[in-house]
Amino acid sequence: MGENIEFKYTVENGEFQRAGEASSDVKQKLKAMGVDPSIVRKVAIAMYEGEVNMVIHANGGEITVTVDPDKIKMVLDDVGPGIPDVEKAMEPGFSTADDNVRSLGFGAGMGLPNMKKNSDNINIDTTPGKGTKITMEVDLKEA
Amino acid sequence: MDQFYHAVLLDRDKCMGCTTCLKRCPTEAIRIRQGKAKINKEFCISCGECIRVCPHHAKISDHDRIDVIKDYEYTVALPAPSLYMQFNGLEDQSLVLKALLELGFNDVYEVSAGAELVSEMSRDYIAEHKDQIEGPFINTACPSVVRLIRIRFPDLLPNILPLKPPVEVAAEMALEQAVKKTGLPREKIGIIFITPCPSKVAYARAPLGVEKSEIDNCIAIKDVYPLLLHHMKKLAGSEDADKLMSGKIGISWGARGGEATGLLTYHNYLAADGIENVIGVLEDLEDRKFRDLDFVELNACNGGCVGGVLTVENAYIAETRLKRLRKYLPVSKQRIEEGQKEMIPLERDIEFQPVYNLGTDIKESFIRLNQLERIEKSLPGLDCGTCGAPTCRALARDIVLGEASENHCIYYLKEKLRKVSDDIDGLDLSINCSQEGSLQKVRDFLGKIKEDIASLDDGKDEYEG
Ligand SMILES: Nc1ncnc2c1ncn2[C@@H]1O[C@H](COP(=O)(O)OP(=O)(O)O)[C@@H](O)[C@H]1O
Ligand code: SF4
Ligand SMILES: [Mg+2]
After folding, report:
1. B110/B157 same-domain check
2. What is the domain extent for residue B176?
3. Whether residues B268 and B288 fall in one domain
4. Predicted confidence (pLDDT) per residue in A76-90, tens digit
5. Does the Cβ of A109 fall within 6 Å of ligand 1?
6. CATH value at residue B375
């Protein structure tokens, strides 16, 4: 069956209200495929957290989701400030979010840990001042 | 009974084939075919949204007529809590109970009494099991919500609080009493629920989580309302509050938040009403976006059951009346007694029904999703509904599943027509009448155009079941 399916999303800067739209759309599509609910959930959570990070830390960006018969691959690409210390950023609870963002219920410092936990493969490619490209993969095992 | 039985029917003569219900159905269960609305039973959750919005009153609830009570030797009425809130100025619901007897029922058993038993059991159950599930418990009182979860949110099935809805508990208790009192065989006794909605009708006929419901028939609040009003006028002043079987907790189940507040000690709850809001909450629950919640109360109707499509009063006025009714009632009048505890839990698990799946396995679904995406891109993206599907994407899905064709889209047809017209232009240029064989050429061309035009109409009716 060869062909992969690709979905592209643009995440707008500062659009808190809309954060989560892209992950919710992907969720519906995976559900329609009959992907195992626990896998759909992993994708939805990992992508949601990445999407929110793009909104609150990185002035928005692009998300590309590719579904092939074996896995779901999410590439989140932004031209934000980058992450100076990735190891530190991955620590549960670590956050640089300001009070304003926190008052909206974001910034608990669990985003990156959740992304790691819910993907089978994660790669963070970041350059301070240039941007961040996060690639996550979730395996598509038959239910 | 078919587990996909739904309690919403179409009056074909009244249906104009407009797109109102099509666009408002929360599960995209409706298509317009041959100019009439058609409900896909696998997707219908009997929420009654289409009944509410149909401007031609062509959508009807499949409840029973009042004269079913004549089919039995002995009948017990089960009034929904929301019934009490239909009456202006009512201060004591025992007047309603009395009027029900005047109407011809032999006895009355308040659903709110069953509700108090479920409230008590819920408190115990949540305390005992809350650490065993991820996320909060979700109520089972609204059958439309349970039906929605089983087709769309399989991941949340373990969160369903596995207790029967109050109406079922009430039906079983009422039946037991009636048998004891009369000694009649089961089939001579009628347990009749006075319902605010078709959703409960669907539950009574095709229950989930229960082998068979003890509710024999469901009659609509709006049908008994005028008759009750008549008797209540005559009876006014003769009410007898001692006859009441339930207090504040029980009757509060009739409006949003009532079930949740009945949990008393659990303050970490969320109560959402209105089917679109319910879907929003379920989506978020599925993504584990709410932490630290113990309980989630979901009702398909705005305002809770007082907003049921078979009620007569405005939901918000009814909600205000509840406050007045509750005022002098004790908190609760029921306590779980010996032997009742075993009766309240659900009898079996509610199973996932993957009706939204595109294929029978991942491979097939993958191929079809690919097709669907491609077809969707070729459609205009207007979601106009004229094709008979609620959105362009829904039409694309129907096409992939062989239930519709591109020709259902009028914009697609327009494009085709344009091509036909281009062909005619081409004809002018290529024909030279003095030329040999040109007559045949004209014939061929006209034949082709005829075929094209005929194809414009294709697909309109060919997918009828
Ligand atoms: N796309 C990004 N661009 C720049 N910084 C990021 C990005 N994603 C995460 N970070 C940094 O990593 C930190 C931790 O991220 P996360 O675990 O999601 O917690 P939170 O978003 O709650 O702060 C953030 O506070 C931020 O400093
Ligand atoms: S909220 Fe109540 S009235 Fe509305 S569908 Fe659910 S059970 Fe019926
Ligand atoms: Mg984050």
Report:
1. yes
2. 67-343
3. yes
4. 999 999 999 999 999
5. yes
6. 1.10.15.40
Residue B356 lies in a domain: no
B464: pLDDT confidence band, cut at 50, 70 and 90?
very low
* CB B303 less than 6 A from any atom of ligand 2: no
B353 occurs within a structural domain: no
- Closest-CA residue of chain B to A72: B366
Q: What is the number of structural domains in chain B?
A: 3
pLDDT tens column, A32-83: 888 888 899 999 999 999 999 999 999 899 999 999 888 999 999 999 999 9
Residue nearest to atom 24 of ligand 1 (CA): A95
Which of B289, B362, B373 minimises the CB distance to A34? B362
Tell me whether residues A45 and B287 touch, CB distance under 8 A. yes
Quick one: B146 and B215 in the same domain?
Answer: yes
Q: Which of B154, B155, B369 sits opposite A32 (nearest CB)?
A: B369
What span, in angstroms and rounded, lies between the C-alpha atoms of B367 and B128?
45
- Whether the model pTM is above 0.95: no
Contact B40, B388 (CB under 8 A): no
Q: What is the pLDDT of residue B456?
A: 65
Sheet holding B137-138, edge to edge: B137-138, B295-299, B269-273
* Residue B1 in domain: no
Given a cut of 90, whether residue B444 has pLDDT beyond it is no
User: Is residue B317 domain-shared with residue B460, that is, in the same domain?
Assistant: no
CB-CB under 8 Å, B367 with A1: yes
Tens digits of residue pLDDT in B266-311: 778 999 999 999 999 999 998 888 878 999 999 999 999 999 999 9
CA nearest A31 in B: which residue?
B357
Q: Do B252 and B308 fall into the same domain?
A: yes
Contacts of A140 in chain B (CB under 8 A): 362
Nearest ligand, CA A97: 1
Asked if B392 and B316 sit in the same domain, the reply is: no
